[in-house]
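Hi support team,

I'm filing this because I wasn't sure whether my run with nicotinamide-adenine-dinucleotide finished correctly. The job status page said complete, but I'd like someone to confirm that the output block is well-formed before I use it downstream. Pasting the exact inputs I used:
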Amino acid sequence: MVKPTVETLVTGGAGFIGSNFVLHALDTHPNWRVTTLDKLTYAGRLENLQKVIDDPRHRFIEGDVTDAAVAGPLVRASDIVIHFAAETHVDRSLQEAGAFITTDVYGSFVLLDAARESDRLRCFVQISTDEVYGSVEKGSSRETDEIRPRNPYAASKAGADRLAYSYWATHGVPVIITRGSNNYGRHQFPEKVIPLFVTNAIDRLPVPLYGDGKNIRDWLHVEDHCRAIDLLIEKGNAGEVYNIGGGNEVQNIDLTHRILELLDRPTSLITPVEDRLGHDRRYSVDTGKLRALGWRPRHPFEEGLRATVDWYRKNEWWWRPIKEADPAYRDYYETQYGRRHDGRA
Ligand code: NAD
Ligand code: TDX
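And here is everything the job wrote out:
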């Protein structure tokens, strides 16, 4: 057995992308010991880490990235930090932006400030997002383009993105900034469009499509995202930004049709609803810089979407308790079916 010699800290590792990254890292790096630091908000699910919970190369710490007493020593004991922890849902940021500023901006500051005092840290990956570029009507965003975030989530991520850069420029923290496009795959919380529509469709419930349904997102399989981060830890340059995109630009209406088709559900489930405020029309990233390092996405969208739909179909134990705990879902279900979701009177 290889002795684990590389201490890696993953913040937000109980969430969607973070948990996929932890599982990927333990599988592919026998010399890594991984610490997951996660507050377990509504989006953090310990069951995402079920497979590695007893792995001697992994430890889980429940804690808040804004708490310097907890996060600081963990950062200073690490060779690599991958910072995923964030509030991530745009619709929530339209209602209550405070948590986004606290976690996404201030939380990043706490980690970066601890990193500044480290004498062993070799890489700090700041997980940013393609949303920082704002809506892109034509062409594709390059890393050097101006950032123009247009909703509180994107603005808080942009603040953290630039703060991370400033810690490289001023203090020499070995920061790498990634701007990924919309991810999909297992473990995604059923508030985001793909798992929401898939789980609603499984239950034969309507799927609420915002506005005219013609907004475009570029879908990136979460495993391709994890491999890109891994490559950048090895080959990326400190102080630089790297776009990560799947190259699958799809209109929401088209995505919805594909999901319904995969589940053999009628298009009459599509329910147009009022548009999201400030709804960005399109995101698109130029991934030439990352591709020049040898990365290519491995999951064609059609195959990846099919596998994702299958995962939700086979893992109701994972998502059904989440949805059933949500009063809005219970009301929705009763309105549609005239009876309770659990069959009780
Ligand atoms: P997620 O909402 O599924 O998970 C976020 C995780 O962070 C949860 O486990 C949550 O408990 C944890 N967390 C939240 N606040 C915390 C705090 N104060 N301290 C410690 N842990 C906390 O999010 P995700 O979709 O996996 O996104 C992960 C990262 O990737 C985020 O930084 C997000 O901005 C970025 N990103 C996401 C996408 C996407 O499509 N999902 C695309 C590009 C970038
Ligand atoms: O019910 C819905 N109906 C609908 O039409 C929901 C939840 C969404 N949508 C539309 C809005 C978007 O055009 O689907 C598209 C995708 O929406 P989300 O899944 O909420 O993702 P998005 O707003 O694009 O943001 C995501 O990608 C970038 C992640 O949530 C972010 O964390 C990431 O940074």
